[in-house]
Each structure stands twice: as structure tokens, then as C-alpha cells.
Amino acid sequence: MPKPAAIVGQTILYGAFAAFIGYFATAPTYTQIPNDVALIKLSMSHLGGRECRKRSPEELAKLPPNMRAPLDCPRGRSDIKLQLELDGKPMFETVMHPTGLSGDGVSTVYKRFEVKAGTYQLAVKMNDNLVNPGFNHVKEAQVTLKPAQVLVVDFNPDKGGLFFQ
To answer: What's the CA gap between 10 and 12, in Å, rounded?
Structure first.
């Protein structure tokens, strides 16, 4: 049978441990971003284009019947060039490379930018086939960001390409 002093000592130690855990469960307060800041998250995964060429009738005739696809497409995909501008000033620019051993996988980027809450002119430009000059996907909009708001920039061909959410 434990002695009364051991029971009291155990109670004090358990109480101190519970108070320690209880304090750090609620304090100090943690804020992910400051109160007057909003986030812009650039998060996208996209397959770059491929440069296919049409085979000539002579080339098709030389191939076995089961290999006579009219288009000859390389396995590898193009790099993707991406630009993000805020109020006409470049904020981020990158070239995303395709993944995979043969360079035939998806190109991915994830970046987050902390900006002061307010109204901005946001422009995102993307070229998913670097054989063609310029940008074939462009999205520009005036966005109003509230404190602690998160604006996601993504790409989905089913939603018309680049979009802000």
C-alpha cells in the first residue's frame, strides 16, 4: 500500500504536468499569417504539349499494319513557362519541367505569396508548348483581397484554363 506522502507527491506531479499541457494547448496564440495580410497560392499540375507530325503515305506504307498511326508523337512533353504579375510588376516567373524518366509526366508548381490586403491587378500567363512563342493561356483580373483571405491560382482545362478561386 502506497504511503500518503507518495500519493500527494504523485497528485502534485500529475497536476503540474496537466497544467503544463493545458497551458501550451491554448497559449501562446499562433497565427499563420499576420492580421493585415492575404495569401496568393499558385498551385498547379499540368501536362505540357507535344509536337506531333503527320506521317507521309510513304512512311505509313513502310510500317507494319498494326503500327500505322497517322501521327508521330514523341513521348516527351514540353516545358511550361509561367509568369505571375501583380499590378504590372513581375512577382514570379518559372519554367516547369515535366517529371518522369522520359520527360512525359506532369509539370507541377506550388508557391505561396503573402501580400497586404487590398485591391490588385493580378495577371497569370502560361505557355504549355514552348515551340510556340508567347503565352497561349492568359488570365487577368482585378482582385480584392481581405485580411487572412487565401486566393488560389490554378489551371483546369475543363474550367476554361487558368482561374482564380
So the answer is: 5
pLDDT > 90: percent of the chain: 70
Cα-based distances in Å from 126 to 79, 113, 140: 11, 18, 12
pTM of the model: 0.75
Extract the C-alpha cell encoding 38. Answer: 492575404
Distance (Å, rounded) from C-alpha 161 to C-alpha 145?
22
Give phi and psi for 114, each to the nearest 5: -95, 125
What's the pLDDT tens digit per position in 78-111?
Answer: 999 999 999 999 999 999 999 999 899 999 999 9
HSE, CB side, 13 Å, CA atoms: give it for residue 155. Answer: 23
Beta strands in the chain (DSSP E): 37-46, 53-54, 71-72, 80-86, 89-96, 107-116, 118-127, 137-145, 150-156, 161-164
Peptide bond into 4 cis (omega under 30): no
- Give exposure, 13-52, as e/b (b: 16+ Cβ within 10 Å): eeeeeeeeeeeeeeeeeeeeeeeebbbbebebebebbeee
CB 147 within 8 A of CB 37: yes
